[in-house]
Amino acid sequence: MSELGVSARPGRQQPGRQHFGRMVLAHGRMETLLLVRNGEQLLLALVIPLLLLIGGAESGGVVDLGSGRRIDVLTPGVLALAVMSTAFTSLAIATGFERRYGVLKLLGASPLSRSGLLVGKVLALLAVEAGQVVVIVVAGLALGWHPHGGVVAGLLCAALIVLGTAAFAAVGLLMAGSLRAEATLAAANLVYVVLLAAGAVVVPASSYPAGMRPLITALPSGALAEGLRSLTRGAAIGWSSTGSRFLVLAVWAVVAGVVAVRTFRWE
Amino acid sequence: MSSHPVEVCDLVMRYGDRTAVDGLTLTVHAGTIAAVLGPNGAGKTTTIETCEGYRRPQSGTVRVLGLDPVRQHRELAPRVGVMLQSGGAWSAIRAEEMLRYVASLHADPVPVPLLIDRLGLDSCGRTPYRRLSGGQQQRLRLAMAVVGRPELLFLDEPSAGLDPQSRKAAWDLVEDLARDGVTIVMTTHYMEEAERLADMVHVIDHGRVLVSGTPAELTSTGARNTIRFHARAGLDTTALSDALPPGYVVVEAIAGTYRVDGDVTPHTLATVTSWCAAQGVMPDDLAVEKHTLEDVFLELTGRDIRHE
Lengths: 267, 308
Prior knowledge:
The complex is a heterodimer of chains A (about 270) and B (about 300). By secondary structure, chain A is mostly helical. Chain A contains ten helices and no strands.
């Protein structure tokens, strides 16, 4: 052995096997860092939601938000938008470029398994979303938001956000794993804008034409935002207000997830 | 458990109707450096990537450290270092962060500052990957392949695009690793690199191994050397060809520069100089040149330019 000691140390059976949990944490930390450092993604994650929240609350009826106080309608919708921006748009774009730059290829030869990579990504998404939720909730409260429903509704909101994250992430990875990086960049931004405008994210489904409502609430954006709105506005917890939202998100997560696993190209 | 770190037997790999690897057999012995040479599209990268577990052999077998690179990838990955030909890092990540991240995937990594120092990355540790020069990216990729203390290292064109100082640093590191008992498999286009580093050279083309041997063995096969000299242009070389035994080639490729290719002996030399004397010319700069690995390589694989 040279004095540099670069190679495997004698007497060790399995050089270099790192604990799974440590690898996942290291990966989650790295992805969080890269998400937070990316200026465009930060714009998507915080600036746009905050502008919509403040602008929507202060604009007074330019856009019809239905009945009730505007800030109570807006805040849960903006929370849903924040989740969509991170779990769908940011994830799809970042993963598309990871594929393009050979990061996924390199990790394919590293000790980090594919499941470890996925768990690390989910940790990063949840970490960024936690930051977004704190900022938006504080801003909403400062603008006079009165959430209803107590602890149970709060926990159901958290569960809905986690399931919504799974649904959006599955669709985002499906896109990133099959399209070219530039196509993913374009498509992920386009879908974001279309859903923001027509996906019942900020504007509640009740403000859309009646014929469109079933379609809109079957989208992950509509399901998540409508679910959060009814839970925080004190609606009775039941099948149509809550249960169906969970079902829609679960179906998206499973179907898109299965297709993503089958079609994902690593190079 | 098989006895050699890399055992490739009758490997066949096809992309559509193109056969990239066509019955390739290759063994790398423990603790040696093997250089895989071949023109573009010869099947080098496909072979290496099959060993790394990226592709499943369509026919034939591949064993790496006695394991199946695809099915036993989980056991294998911590013990093998891989340097890709390009890419492999986030564009916004800083060089040192990237190296620390890869180190964190291993239980007992080489201290990151040591590698940064060895490969001269200290000046660019805080530079984002996309702003590193080609040579810096290349050295970082080498550091990433090495940081986990692998038993076996695959390097795909490790010194492509490096300046002489960087190349020396990379070579020194590879030699130290080999001295420590690490088995190294590298592809290269640089004959100088193969001659300097490799214990065994495998020349491959059209998906097969054409010849394997130590650099010395390969350069002495055929014993074809060259006598080269300058003289007045336009001399009649037929008399010289006639004076030499069959199998020698006399050419005036550039006006005034003469070459005699063949098995050069003292007798050959005497024939050439007496012919010069008969012509009344002085053979200036006369030199006997041994064949280099590059000559051997070009003889084996032809002189046409290949396209990927």
